[in-house]
Specification:
The protein is an all-alpha fold. The chain contains 15 helices and two strands. It has a two-stranded antiparallel sheet with strand order 1-2. The longest helix is centred in the first third of the chain and has 30 residues.
Length: 355
């Protein structure tokens, strides 16, 4: 795979990786922000499989995020303590994990946080992915909302009051060490997700997804089992989104059903917005979109506190009106040579004149 990477692309990958390794140490006060920057990229590039490559705009990926969060923390606790006792009184009654218990529970919890959402995607995919267009979008929106309400009614996981994630063992370091650990764990997940999706896009799988997006009926007429590919794409997204949810639950430290785990109003919408901003249906578009969006979001929350959602709404309007193809689409139009597209300058000018 490495031999197939162009030299220019290799420099870009190494540059991004070097920045991700060094920046949180240089700007250590912003390590949490860097961690959530990587989480947003993971959410964006996995949403792009459905919304960008396949043409199925989903608001339901937030369900996998929340399930991963609850499953990971629930297993971390349940392996060594009584989960019902832990969550009593909103999780205020806590037990202390030893370092061995904490990490053993974390690895098993993360594994389950990846597998269980993928199984859920496999089960409900047969029903949901039979819908198309706005019917599919509305259905997945309902799934995201219902997930939060269902979690809010389950006493074992703290119901509406939520539950605490296992606290970081103090024996192995303080808050700075904890933040550093979870940053590099998130970075590892980002690299794993990006490399896998880049490989996936180099296979026939991407062509099939694009065929579904462009004309699903014609793809079926050509003998493509579209449902199988649509479900596979959703399962892949659920796997990585669930892992991200498991990590975020530990980073935040408190899991609440509606505003943290199944937060469709923010995270659910952010996934869509970041892809549109960067450019749907591209590998780098969601990465760029998530990065730019994170800068805007942090700025709004810092400088326009109280009006941050108004500023965010204005940003959404600007993106939809002026950047419908995203940043990648804008760059492709202005600088086609950057994308390996050879344009005859006289033909281009003639087209501009005709327009």
């Amino acid at each position: 795979m490495l031999s197939n990477i162009k030299k220019k692309d290799l420099f870009i990958y190494l540059g991004v990786l070097a920045f991700a390794l060094i920046a949180p140490n240089v700007f250590s006060d912003y390590r949490i922000q860097f961690t959530f920057w990587l989480v947003l990229i993971i959410l964006a590039i996995t949403w792009n499989i459905q919304g960008g490559e396949m043409g199925y705009n989903t608001f339901g990926n937030i369900m996998f995020f929340g399930v991963g969060m609850y499953v990971c923390s629930g297993i971390q606790i349940g392996l060594f303590f009584d989960l019902a006792e832990w969550t009593v009184s909103g999780g205020e009654k806590t037990f202390i994990h030893t370092p061995d218990q904490y990490f053993q529970g974390l690895w098993i919890g993360l594994l389950a946080a990846a597998i269980i959402p993928a199984i859920i995607a496999l089960i409900i995919g047969y029903g949901v992915l039979g819908l198309r267009g706005h019917y599919f979008a509305i259905c997945t929106l309902g799934i995201g909302i219902a997930s939060g309400e269902i979690a809010g009614g389950i006493e074992l996981i703290g119901a509406g009051q939520g539950m605490t994630a296992p606290p970081w063992p103090k024996d192995i370091g303080g808050t700075e060490y904890r933040n550093e650990f979870f940053y590099y764990l998130t970075l590892a997940l980002f690299v794993m997700t990006f490399v896998f999706i880049k490989w996936l896009y180099s296979t026939r799988f991407r062509l099939v997804l694009n065929a579904i997006r462009d004309n699903e009926d014609k793809a079926e007429a050509m003998g493509i089992e579209t449902m199988r590919y649509k479900i596979t794409g959703w399962v892949i997204s659920a796997f990585f989104v669930g892992l991200a949810g498991g990590l975020v639950g530990n980073i935040v430290g408190y899991i609440e059903p509606v505003e943290v785990a199944f937060d469709g109003r923010e995270m659910g919408v952010f996934m869509v917005l970041m892809c549109i901003l960067g450019g749907k249906g591209t590998l780098w578009g969601p990465v760029i979109g998530a990065s730019v969006f994170h800068i805007f979001k942090e700025s709004f929350w810092s400088f326009f506190l109280g009006w941050q959602y108004v500023a965010l709404g204005v940003l959404i309007i600007v993106i939809v009106v002026y950047l419908p193809e995203g940043i990648m689409g804008f760059l492709r139009e202005k600088k086609p040579e950057w994308f390996g597209e050879i344009m005859d300058e006289e033909d281009r000018k003639a087209q501009v004149t005709l327009d």
